[in-house]
Amino acid sequence: MKQHTHDEHIAGAIHANSGHKPVKKILISVGSVIILVLAAVSFIFLPAMVQSMGGELPAFGYFDGVPIKYENGSYFAQAVQNYSQLMQLQGYPVEQSMFTIFNSAFNAAVLNTAFTHEVQKAGYIVPASQINEAMMPYYADINGNYSPKKFNDTPQAERIRVRDQAENQLLHQRYIDDLTGAAAAGAEPVYGAKISSKEIPFIRQAALQERSFRMAIFNTADYPQSEAAAFGQAHADLFTRYDLSVITAATQQEAESIHRQLAANEIVFEDAAASLSLKNYSGDDGKLTENYRYQLQNMLSNEADLAAVTGLAAGALSGVVQAGASYAVFRADGPAVQPDFSDEALLADVLAYMRIYETGIIEDYFTAQATDFAARAAVDGFDQASAALSVRTVDIPAFPLNYADNALFATIPSAAVPELSGAQTNAEFLETAFSLSGQELSQPLVLGENIVVLQLAAAEEADETDLNLIDGNYATNVEQFDYQSLQNAVMQDPRFQNDFFTVYFEYFTGTN
Q1: pTM score of the predicted model
Q2: Out of 60, 66, 209, 379, which residue is the most buried by the measure of CB atoms under 10 Å away?
Q3: What is the pLDDT of residues 245-266, one digit of tens each?
Q4: CA trace torsion 291, 294, 299, 300 (10° rounding)
Q5: Where are the alpha helices (DSSP H) in 358-418?
Q6: Which residues contact 71 (CB under 8 A, 6 or more apart)?
Q7: DSSP SS3 for 374
Q8: What are the backbone angles phi and psi of residue 481, rounded to the nearest 5°?
Q9: DSSP letter (8 states) at residue 92
């Protein structure tokens, strides 16, 4: 009877708040858009292993001692439900996305736990009138009006769940509002961070001036084999191959023990390689897989060890030498093989070496070509020079100077021009591009895997519609930035204990 009276009180309060008017849609903040507080939890994932244990899971983590548990009716479980539905809507199979779903849901649950805990610890109590108002959409009919029938037809347990979730959401939102100053559309924030009246004009001014360009592209992936062969011939010793086998051990003592057994013929090298070796530089057969001289130089930092290993006679064992983080015993299986630079496979290896260790040589080659192009283009024109020298060019749509692609305004069009990937943080590229005037050509610039030459096509002002979008979206963008900062603060808080990986892999995959 007491509960019945309480329910009647709730019904009356909701009815009074509704005024028989259509229930307005509630604006949900960025932080809570994923987890719809009044969404029904129709199912909960529990793997067979957990069900056999009675469905009980340990906490996935703690915030300030408060456990974050995955159990029926919990925020965590609801988040799993919502992320699963989101995955399904995007066409991803839920069964193959379980880790992503649970990890995302856990992160959401961590934030909710931290936010509500901090607010409750401060002594805040959500007014009953706010809870009742938040519950109104759940009991609305298809026209958005409060429905007493829908309320009366809702089971008591469901009413309690809806009320608890509404209160939780309001606690969660209280924390966000207090720290960030978030507010309903059109309202001035009362608490938290404020937006200066000068911020939007500043961003608008930064986005106002845009430039478009023409760009000549010299791709370093086009480095000719003839140049690679010339480099290889000049550094032939680097590409000498050594026919070696190796056994690696974690400690010098272990390696010396293996060496003594080999020297005394107590164990066959191949057996030791298969059963005793860490196989850091070999397979089960013990054959050294990285056997160019330059690879041995990387492996053996001691010059004396390198000389000893590369000077082994066929069938001879080396002493124990340090190889990277391990200790090794080498055996020479045959004579060294001198490089043949007419072999295309070897030339591919030379190119791979140059792209790792000698990128400057490759860049210098194309920089020289780009310099010749720029000199010719200055005399004959951009199009004529590119046609005469068979240089690939691309038109770059207008964009503003926006270092690091700040989301507040237009960014570098790298989706339309993939060669611009990385340009947003290339200070030399941006400084050069926005210093050009008239039909001026830039000096050659390194941009990712390309050497490029720019010519200013046009300097213009951004479209007014785009500038107006900055004004309209600014508050939302700032709220997103603020919420991301809150997320980072919680995840780095020393009071947060993260046991997600341990629990997930032990109970959901059977591994730890």
Answers
A1: 0.70
A2: 60
A3: 999 999 999 999 999 999 999 9
A4: 110
A5: 359-380, 382-389
A6: 55, 57, 77
A7: helix
A8: -60, -45
A9: -
For 317, what's the count of Cα atoms within 13 Å in the CB-facing half-sphere?
A: 18
Structure tokens at 321: 């030498």
Neighbours of 348 (CB within 10 A): 12
The C-alpha atoms of residue 317 and residue 331 are separated, in whole angstroms, by 5
Rounded to the nearest 10°, the torsion over CA 428, 431, 434, 435 is: -110
Tell me the residue type at 271: D
- CA distances to 181, 202, 360, 454 from 425, rounded to whole Å, are 31, 21, 20, 17
Task: Give the CA distances from residue 338 to residues 236, 308, 310, 314, in Å, rounded to whole numbers and listed in that order.
Answer: 8, 18, 13, 16
> Do the strands 450-461 and 445-447 form a parallel or antiparallel pair, or are they unpaired?
antiparallel
Q: How far apart are CA 488 and CA 497, in angstroms?
A: 14
Percent of the chain predicted with pLDDT > 90: 69
**Which tokens is 78 given?**
């609801």
Residue 454's H or E segment, with its range, is strand 450-461
CA Rg, the chain, in Å?
Answer: 34
Contacts of 159-165 with CB under 8 Å at 24 or more apart are 159/7, 159/10, 161/73, 162/38, 162/135, 162/138, 163/10, 163/131, 163/135, 165/37, 165/38, 165/78
Who's near 302: CB < 8 A, 6+ residues apart?
321, 322
Over the stretch 215-242, which tens digit does the pLDDT of each residue have?
999 999 999 999 999 999 999 999 999 9
Closest listed residue to residue 141, CA positions, set 129, 154, 128: 154
Strand order in the sheet with 321-323: 244-249, 326-332, 321-323
Residues 6+ apart with CB under 8 A from 415: none
Strand partners, 211: 399, 459
CB within 8 Å of 394: residues ≥ 6 apart? 214, 215, 217, 417, 419
According to DSSP, the β-strands at 326-332 and 321-323 are antiparallel
Q: Helices 128-135 and 156-180 meet at what angle, rounded to 10?
A: 110
Q: What percent of the chain has pLDDT over 70?
A: 87
3-state secondary structure labels for all residues of 335-364: CCECCCCCCHHHHHHHHHHHHHHCHHHHHH
Q: Residue 21: count other Cβ atoms within 10 Å of its Cβ.
A: 10
Assigned token pair, 67: 């456990």
Report the distance separating Cα 491 and Cα 502, nearest Å.
Answer: 17
Tokens coding 214: 């023409």
- 79/69 Cα distance (integer angstroms): 12
- Cβ atoms < 10 Å from Cβ of 258: 23
Q: Per the structure block, which two tokens stand in for 121?
A: 């610890």
Angstrom CA distances, 335 to 95, 294, 297, 331, stand at 54, 17, 18, 11
